[in-house]
């Protein structure tokens, strides 16, 4: 796509961009970049068959980052008028010029990126913004009605369709110009169920892709409805099992959130650079079974976490964090890549133009192994099978984690038996990785509306095949 369209969209020229970066570097900065964004957000929400909220808003502006030694200066403006941008460039320069300690002795270069070009993993077609509420409303009604009619215990249903479309232009002091158009559409539902005895359970489901109106088919709406009521019988009959150390089988798909939280964050290279990660000294070392490959991927077609280019203009790519059991790469933005004298991996991401980019995950998953999921369960004499996590807490430095388990089943003598709920899984990320003794052949990417909240909100996805962990602490009944 022609860069002229993007330059005209923000009413700037290449000469303007060069002048702004020169101003940003006027206090002796080492590197400067500009990030222009125009995002249109839309939302339509329905509760119990009635529209209860809807709206649209626009986010527009640009941010300027200056790097000088170990210091970052960042300023933004919600205007692209010349004087506003000029003021932001000078402010960023002054912030970066404040005392910051020793110069790190590295330079910023795109040399290691030569030959790497941006792919196309999503396309700006059929924008949902071009279809009014009249097009969305029948789909919301279908979603709500499907859920309500699926189970007599449904007492409340909330359904929502949201979308955004971002026009992005980036420029840096290496004379790098890049641009992208990013669609993102999500469908979500939440239901409250009440049994005859008055007890209640909730369940939710969502789908989110970098697509526009073409995402919203009747079949996808029905799929979300089915997932919203799926497993509710087990939820009502579930028990809280006895706790202790035991084997844990994690189901394919959404269990990948544990991989994201307990392992993925520790590979983000800002933590590595500051030696705050337990993996800081592990590059090239074996950390788990040689059958295990862990990936952070920005190249999955239409995936919520994919990036044609990241928020520093670096092409999206597929990065092996762990390959054949060895730590192969960390997740780099331009700062950490310059520090380690390697190429950035396309992981420089930001919430909006109001924030500087930092290393963030995209779609994080483990590749399939060679085991049947049934065989993994059959290996366990006494343990648990977990299929729905939430509310994870992780200490990046130590790798310790705690996750709340919403649903799963007991494993007794190699068979799934009683449904379970309301327990915690407690462990250590690196140890849990090294304790994986079986990897299923059923990798599933969970295409829900996942959001990572590391300092800023960012759209991500996760996935995992069924895996057997030798031992984790299960917090249940005494």
UniProtKB/TrEMBL annotation:
GO terms for molecular function: metallopeptidase activity. GO terms for biological process: proteolysis. One of its GO terms (cellular component) is cytosol. InterPro entries: Metalloprtase-TldD/E_C, Metalloprtase-TldD/E_cen_dom, Metalloprtase-TldD/E_N, Peptidase_U62_metallo, TldD, TldD/PmbA_N, TldD/PmbA_sf. Keywords: Hydrolase, Metalloprotease, Protease. Residues 129-229 form the Metalloprotease TldD/E central domain. Pfam families: PmbA_TldD_1st, PmbA_TldD_2nd, PmbA_TldD_3rd. Residues 244-476 form the Metalloprotease TldD/E C-terminal domain. Residues 32-96 form the Metalloprotease TldD/E N-terminal domain. It comes from the Bacteria. Belongs to the peptidase U62 family. This is TldD/PmbA family protein. It comes from Candidatus Merdivivens pullicola.
């Amino acid at each position: 796509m022609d860069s002229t369209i993007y330059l005209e969209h923000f009413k700037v020229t290449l000469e303007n961009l060069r002048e702004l970066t020169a101003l940003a570097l006027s206090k002796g900065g080492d590197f400067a970049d500009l990030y222009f964004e125009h995002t249109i957000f839309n939302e339509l929400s329905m509760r119990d068959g009635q529209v209860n909220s809807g709206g649209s808003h626009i986010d527009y502006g640009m941010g300027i980052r200056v790097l000088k030694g170990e210091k970052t200066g960042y300023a933004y403006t919600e205007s692209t008028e010349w004087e506003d941008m000029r003021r932001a460039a000078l402010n960023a320069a002054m912030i970066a010029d404040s005392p910051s300690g020793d110069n790190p002795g590295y330079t910023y270069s795109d040399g290691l990126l030569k030959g790497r070009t941006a792919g196309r993993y999503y396309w700006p077609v059929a924008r949902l913004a071009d279809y009014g509420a009249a097009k969305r409303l029948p789909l919301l009604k279908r979603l709500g009605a499907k859920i309500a009619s699926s189970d007599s215990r449904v007492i409340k249903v909330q359904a929502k369709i949201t979308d955004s479309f971002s026009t992005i232009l980036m420029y840096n002091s290496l004379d790098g110009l890049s641009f992208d158009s990013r669609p993102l559409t999500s469908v979500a539902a939440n239901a409250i169920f009440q049994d005859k005895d008055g007890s209640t359970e909730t369940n939710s489901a969502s789908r989110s892709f970098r697509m526009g109106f073409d995402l919203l088919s009747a079949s996808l709406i029905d799929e979300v409805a089915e997932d919203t009521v799926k497993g509710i019988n087990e939820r009502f009959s579930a028990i809280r099992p006895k706790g202790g150390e035991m084997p844990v089988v994690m189901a394919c798909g959404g269990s990948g959130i544990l991989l994201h939280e307990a392992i993925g964050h520790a590979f983000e290279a800002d933590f590595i650079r500051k030696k705050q990660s337990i993996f800081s000294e592990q590059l090239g070392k074996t950390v788990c079974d040689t059958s295990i490959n862990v990936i952070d991927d920005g190249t999955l077609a239409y995936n919520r976490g994919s990036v044609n280019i990241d928020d520093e203009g670096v092409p999206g790519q597929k990065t092996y964090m762990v390959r054949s059991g060895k730590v192969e790469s960390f997740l780099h933005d331009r700062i950490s890549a310059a520090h380690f004298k390697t190429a950035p991996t396309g992981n420089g991401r930001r919430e909006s133009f109001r924030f500087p980019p930092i290393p963030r995950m995209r779609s994080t998953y483990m590749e399939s192994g060679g085991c049947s999921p049934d065989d993994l369960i059959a290996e366990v004499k006494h343990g648990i099978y977990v299929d729905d996590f939430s509310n994870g807490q992780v200490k990046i430095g130590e790798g310790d984690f705690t996750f709340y388990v919403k649903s799963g089943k007991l494993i007794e003598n190699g068979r799934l038996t009683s449904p379970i709920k309301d327990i915690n899984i407690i462990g250590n990320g690196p140890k849990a990785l090294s304790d994986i003794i079986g990897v299923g052949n059923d990798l599933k990417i969970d295409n829900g509306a996942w959001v990572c909240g590391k300092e800023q909100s960012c759209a991500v996805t996760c996935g995992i095949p069924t895996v057997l962990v030798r031992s984790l602490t299960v917090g249940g009944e005494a």
